[in-house]
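As the next step, I selected for study a record pairing a protein sequence with its backbone structure tokens, which the following lines show:
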Amino acid sequence: MKLLIPMCCAFFLAQTTLVGQDTINTVPKKVYTTKALNNLKAPDIDGMLDDASWDIVEWTGDYIENQPDENTAPSYQTKFKIVYDKRFLYIGVRCYDAEPQNIVKRLSRRDGFEGDWVEFNIDSYHDKRTAFSFTITAAGVKGDEFISNNGEDWDGSWNPIWYVKTNVDTEGWTAELKIPLSQLKFGSGKEQVWGLQSTRRFFRAEERSLWQRKPIDTPGWVSEFGELHGLIGLEPQKQLEIQPYTVANRETFEAEDGNPFRDGDDNQITAGLDAKIGVTNDLTIDLTVNPDFGQVEADPSAIALDGFQIFFREQRPFFVENKNIFDYTVSNSQAGNTFGFDNVFYSRRIGRSPQGFPNTSDGDFVDQPENTPILGAAKFSGKTQDGWSIGVLESVTAKRYATIANGTDRRKEIVEPLTNYFVSRIQKDFNENNTFIGGIFTATNRDALTERVSFLHRAAYSGGLDFKHQWNERDWYLEGRFIWSHVLGSAEAIQNTQESITHLFQRVGADHVEVDPDKTSLTGSGGNLKIGKIGNGHWRFESGATWRSPELELNDIGFQRQADDIRHYTWVGYQTLKPDNSFRRVGINYNHWSVWDFGGNHNSLRFNTNTWQNWKNNWFSNIGFNYAPIQYSNFALRGGPRLRQSPEIGFFNSVGTDGRKKVRLNMFHNGRKATDNSYESYNIGFGVTYQPINALSFSARPSYNINNDQLQFVSNIDVNGDTRYLNGTIAQRTLSMSFRMNYNINPNLTIQYWGQPFISRGRYSDFKVVDNAEAARFEDRFSAYGGGQIQLNEGTYNVDENLDGVTDFSFGDPDFAFVQFRSNLVARWEYIPGSEIFLVWSQDLSRSGNPQDGLFQGLENTIFGNEKPQNIFLIKATYRFIL
């Protein structure tokens, strides 16, 4: 009932809005009719548009402005022609410009989308949900993306082979595109109709114009395309590509006296193979054997004190490509604050760092593997003409051992078992593509769990069903996702799961959960259900609920922060549709969230209002305010009782200058503060980018964070059968700066550098025990130790609670300083389409610093001191065979 009332109110509000605004006329579909070249010579791809083969078809144009002033004439017109033969689709395009000398030709890596560009989106399935996007800049840089979910997802990892050239002349600039039909997916019908859209970016005015008009308030993207006719007798192409690679790698690091595993360097040569096999024109198998990810940029530095895992995005090419088809986000919402990173499939679990550690003694040296090799992986994916989207992924990772040496003997202990990962995903479109239903199933199976890794699940399974129904020209939608999980293992493994930070069945006062030490399996469920209106007018809204049962466990192959959570959310937004004297666009939003656990405890109530602005001068800004009158945490005491947290106010704000300028600036800051001053945090950062010439850019992003909290968890300590929920006052400071340099010699030869120094330091004081966790006043929730009760002696705090001269318990000094420097220098040369050479230099220096040092002093002593970083030098060569 708590969830039903606000959802019904939101539904009524949106229905009222709909009735008042359902007056927009339907935009007519544009149609372009192409022709086959037959016996004519195909165009030479030189960007000149002077081939006779272009004369067999007519120009189409009449682009209409979409941004900033929708449904007005653009600054300059654009026109194009399309022809085809048995193997290729050819597009010739002219972008008029009265000042060709001012056409902006910025260079970038593939998918950079810098400067002036023109784009073609092709819905060759004509399913009105998915499309292939081809973008070409005036500088000749290619961009390509796979579009899914009717424009909600654009996958830039899709890198098909195609050909393009551009040219600047007195009328503007031109481009010729040659797209192999093998890179597209279409049916076998004799005469076909494809969806078609084209977008032009006129850089100097930061203007977008479209071939097929799409009003700003019309939901979806692919569903609004025009149509490409005249495709007769096309034969689906079966794709077969094989791409072997070889890598030579040298690693250097600081040698350790007496450690046989740290002698200062390591060298190796490896090889592997990637392949893409078209089973049909619709469905493709991707294979990889011993994949290499050496050129992948390192993860940014981060540290978390709440005990939960940190989400890092996937960057490995095999898993990034076509990732959208495997996506099953548990609870995405327009409102946010719904654990948006939680996903049934999180590909970074495959090839993760080994989870076990060997049993060692004093004097042992350990060679602990940093990652788990992927022996092989395969993906079967695609979409059929009759609306079935299919994705199947199978991967096997190797058994990994740690090697232990003590000077005389060596032994090995398993730290990661041989593991098989399986994911299957399916969706089916109905109702003229306005409705879909789908499902997902995952399986993780581990082989021969020895004593050292018996804490792992022997097997883990998860699955889900999802649907989305849209109506009233897709303005309205109802969407749901339902999930389940089932994990199996030893009693030790299942007890570890019950007591992990994600579940905490052992927490005090939670009568609806309890640890069962005899269990050998655990089954949970969850889901998300929402209704919304996204189109037709200024007003939009979404309202829904998401839940995770206490037993839900996805982390073997998925990502999940916490279980035992039910939350309701509502978002209402207003957007302008036309520019005025001050703004191009403005939006105003309202959000609220309310959270319960499965025991019926009301753990959170939060409100937010925010607004964003795109100014007339193309600056961007936003500002928002938060208020949380109710806050409790089931997790703050790591198994202790539910902790009341003080009401909170907060804000966020950012400003960014015009992104087209050679010097670009942005600034952001946010903060939050308890109304009783029991905690506060503030984060500020800014960025500057300088692009002196079209081929070169530099950027720097420094940030600084302050975190002061009088109830920061330290440890739970047993004292004669009673638990002390030990907390302290933390003063944490974090400083980092990322730096990038991009130099583009030409569209196919680029040099990139990224580096980030990072330091986070925390100092603890005023230790206390929480003994009345739900007290209304902050001061009543704990008892603080006085100066006579606690003493620091050589890195250990000794506590004498009753002042009888006897130490009741001790704990280590929790002060910390973590310092890290990571960098990548990558030179990439695509010497022929699809084949590349990489030269890579990576550095990593991660150390514990002195918590008593200042931040800059800590950086200087560690990063700029005498310690030697780990260096990796590698050269990687690939060659793509197209058969």
